[in-house]
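Readers outside the structure-tokenisation community will struggle with the description of the input data as it stands. For illustration, here is how one protein appears when written out as sequence plus structure tokens:
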Amino acid sequence: MNAPRITPPRLLLAALPLACLLAGCARPPDSLPMPAQYTMPAGPEPAAASLPDARLILSMADADIDAHIVADVMHAETGEPARWTNARPAFRMIVADVEDLDFYIHLFLPESTFRVTGPVKLAVTINGAVVATPEFRSEGDHEFRSAVPAGILRKGEPVALSFEVRPPYQSPQDGTKLGVLLFSIGFRKQGA
């Protein structure tokens, strides 16, 4: 009697499912080796990405304004004099001289949004501390100044500057919350 003859390609095809089945039965290792560890060189922490040059005022028309916007300011073409904010705009900047400064903001409240919101109050925050709560009781162009409390700013360190618009205008079309049309924000020397 002749035994059936298995040719090499058929043997390979028959062995392949058996090899796959056996590979799935292997036990995983109990642990894996620790990844390579690195020691940082001694010294100060590496510098974070730096902000552009120090200044007192952020103008929405500045070519580098996007580098200072942290949140809640709508995009506009470079050079536009004003930008819409949402309800909680935030900015970062560096102030070289921190002595005898006033907080400063220049904004516009359009009649179309003011008709809905009525008087608008801002809660101005510098480095996490509420420093002013101006209220604007009419539409139109407004400028506001208020002395910056001593110790809130530190020379050469980034300043977190923000405000909350109360109440914001809420668009009936898409629900977007609009704050103010902002021209500039930052600081002015007292008496200037």
About this structure: The domain at 57-189 is CATH 2.60.120.260 (Jelly Rolls).
